[in-house]
Amino acid sequence: MRRGAGALLTVLAALATTALGGCSVAGGSRGEAPAERWQPRPGLAWQWQLDGKVDPAAADVPVYDIDGFENDAADVARLHRAGRKVICYVNVGAWEDYRPDKDAFPRSVLGRANGWHGERWLDIRRISVLRPIMERRFDMCREKGFDAVEPDLMEGYGDDTGFPLTARDQLRYNRMIAHIAHERGLAVGLKNDLPQVPDLVDAFDFAVNEQCAQYGECARLTPFIEAGKAVFHVEYTEPTHRFCPESRRLGLSSMQKKWELGVWRRAC
């Protein structure tokens, strides 16, 4: 979130997979057999809810993006029974003092506050420290039955993190994040980080973007659409009549949300 300042019968299953954009083969982790990885296609409608009790009936859309820590396997199963694919929201770029694994992060990797209460940027150069933590988080997503991961805050190199992060550092870290998701059979989205889209489109299965219309940047997501990969896009302050015509032209899955990311949505 946040930019700037964040199964059934085989026939039915096949039909549902087609409607939701198909899937591709991904390698399993730790010697497991390859798993089928979801591949969302352009134009899929979605609901993004990180606040409040998730209700499968709140939005009649095929994709839900919800908080990985605050929802359990039963919540994911409930969404699956309603025919939804489910994305696991996980912060990979900042430490959050309200998460149950907060003590797993050594103080040496914690940088400056990022403008959100209780959060501090991470030193993404410390791959050996951060990778096992992120692997455990993605294990959680897989064990709860999620289909994909939305890793947040993937463009710290462009912010005042307290560390001398470079674009090269960010590319290395983001590719690592994509790899550990794919090891677990999970699709993974590139969150924002528009300058690196050309370098990362092949590593990610879809994109999640905030406010590209507000900043006149939506065309920069075209490589994902051209690759047959969904772009899940949200605006907060721009009214739908201003951004929906271009969103439809570009093939984005766009809607307007309120900052708290509750149930309310207004789709294109």
What does this protein structure show overall?
The structure is a single chain. This protein has 268 residues and is of the alpha/beta class. The chain has a single domain (10-25, 41-267), classed as TIM Barrel (Alpha-Beta Barrel), CATH 3.20.20.70. 27% of the residues lie in helices and 23% in strands. The chain is globular, with a radius of gyration of 17 Å.
Helices and strands, with pairings:
Layout: H1 10-19, E1 23-26, E2 35-38, E3 46-49, E4 63-67, H2 73-81, E5 85-91, E6 94-96, E7 110-113, E8 119-122, H3 127-143, E9 148-152, H4 167-183, E10 187-191, H5 197-200, E11 206-210, H6 222-226, E12 231-235, H7 240-250, E13 253-256, E14 266-267
Parallel strand pairs: 3-4, 4-5, 5-9, 9-10, 10-11, 11-12, 12-13
Antiparallel strand pairs: 1-2, 6-8, 7-8, 13-14
Helix pairs in contact: 3-4
**Widest beta sheet: strand line-up:** 3-4-5-9-10-11-12-13-14
Structural class: alpha/beta
Mean pLDDT: 90
Overall geometric form: globular
Q: What fraction of the residues are assigned to beta strands by DSSP? A: 15-25%
Number of helices: 7
What labels describe this entry?
nine-stranded mixed β-sheet, three-stranded antiparallel β-sheet, 7 helices, 14 strands, globular
